[in-house]
């Protein structure tokens, strides 16, 4: 077996081959801790280092890094992933951790030595110790990440932009055609969509209109749409926002910040500044109860929104009235003021005399359901454990 290094995180010491590199990352792929030969990377970058930076230093190509990040994005706790990347290849072992709200630990090693396998359990124990001491799982949640869709027929560009966007904390998916983009927008809402100016098929103008129209109908709001081109001078007036290829981190941050600002203004202006999404001060000493009630309310709201989108006749039924009254009761219990106001608007003005609710009132309801989801996510109310 190769030479070994000894490290003592807290009270637990353990040995591992000195050629190994240990990386502990959070759910946004930001590096929490490095051990082994990788410690110099963190010493040079301080606390502003993420996983993509470390892997680039190891000589991995961006496409390979992108593939690994996709695998890590939703790795379940206690799930173990093994793969080989790079030339010469590096053996990588990844472990999803139950602490840290999506944290994971990576072991990078030049080769997989059978006799060193037993050391992996000690590595995972080290990772748990670090997370417990840092109380990663109890850190206050930041703003909800921007959801981004990148549309380009070149798969390498899609992977590259996904890698960049993760450094900005975005939740990103990719599509290589207009049809695939429309299918993804049907399955989930997006805050920002980047579309190649020369995308074949629909074309950027028609695809942008379709995405806005369908997102407004399905999710209650339209995404910010940005064109990608090699020369912005040749765009027509319909493509109001554009960035040039090759895309830089600085340009991408500008449009991500714009989409985030659009989202915040959309929800903050829906019912005016005087109406809160949720009266947090009413739950100062009852956070666990608030989390359970918020999750139940959101589940009810999302189910109701899905039925509205899938069945146009549902809003005409007596069951819809019953569901709205039930949803409103849940809103009052949680003090979800904006969603309560949206329910009142439908019950008071949309269903009087047996009539169906006005379309704009239903769209407002969908907007407020999504707004409550984003608020709850940003304040850590959707986490299943501390």
TrEMBL record:
Leader peptide range in chain numbering: none
Positions where 4-aspartylphosphate occurs in the chain: 196
Gene Ontology biological process terms, A to Z: phosphorelay signal transduction system
Keywords: Phosphoprotein
Domain of life: Bacteria
Positions of the Response regulatory domain: 147-260
Claim: Phosphoprotein is one of the keywords in the record: yes
Record InterPro entries: CheY-like_superfamily, Sig_transdc_resp-reg_receiver
Protein name: Response regulatory domain-containing protein
Organism listed in the record: Pelagicoccus albus
């Amino acid at each position: 077996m190769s030479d070994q290094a000894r490290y003592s995180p807290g009270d637990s010491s353990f040995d591992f081959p000195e050629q190994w590199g240990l990386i502990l990352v959070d759910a946004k792929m930001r590096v929490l801790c490095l051990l082994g030969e990788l410690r110099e990377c963190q010493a040079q970058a301080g606390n502003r280092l993420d996983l993509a930076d470390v892997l680039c230093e190891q000589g991995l190509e961006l496409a390979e890094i992108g593939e690994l990040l996709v695998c890590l994005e939703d790795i379940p706790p206690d799930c173990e992933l093994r793969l080989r990347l790079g030339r010469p290849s590096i053996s990588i072992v990844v472990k999803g951790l139950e602490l840290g709200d999506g944290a994971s630990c990576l072991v990078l090693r030049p080769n997989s030595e059978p006799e060193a396998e037993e050391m992996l359990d000690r590595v995972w124990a080290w990772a748990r110790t670090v997370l417990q001491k840092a109380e990663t799982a109890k850190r206050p949640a930041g703003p909800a990440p921007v959801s981004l869709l990148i549309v380009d027929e070149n798969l390498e560009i899609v992977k590259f932009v996904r890698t960049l966007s993760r450094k900005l904390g975005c939740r990103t998916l990719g599509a290589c055609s207009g049809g695939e983009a429309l299918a993804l927008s049907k399955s989930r809402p997006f805050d920002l969509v980047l579309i190649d100016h020369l995308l074949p098929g629909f074309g950027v103008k028609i695809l942008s209109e379709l995405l806005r129209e369908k997102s407004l109908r399905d999710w209650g709001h339209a995404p910010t749409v940005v064109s990608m081109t090699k020369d912005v001078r040749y765009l027509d007036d319909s493509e109001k926002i554009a960035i040039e290829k090759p895309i830089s981190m600085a340009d991408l941050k500008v449009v991500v910040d714009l989409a985030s600002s659009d989202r915040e203004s959309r929800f903050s202006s829906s019912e005016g500044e005087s109406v809160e999404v949720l009266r947090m001060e009413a739950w100062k000493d009852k956070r666990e109860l608030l989390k359970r009630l918020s999750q139940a309310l959101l589940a009810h709201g999302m189910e109701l929104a899905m039925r509205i989108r899938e069945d146009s006749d549902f809003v005409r039924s007596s069951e819809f009235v019953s569901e709205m009254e039930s949803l409103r009761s849940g809103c009052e219990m949680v003090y979800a003021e904006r969603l309560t106001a949206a329910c009142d608007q439908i019950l008071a003005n949309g269903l009087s005399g047996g009539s169906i609710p006005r379309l704009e009132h239903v769209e407002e309801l969908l907007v407020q359901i999504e707004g409550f989801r984003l608020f709850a996510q940003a304040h850590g109310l959707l986490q299943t454990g501390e």
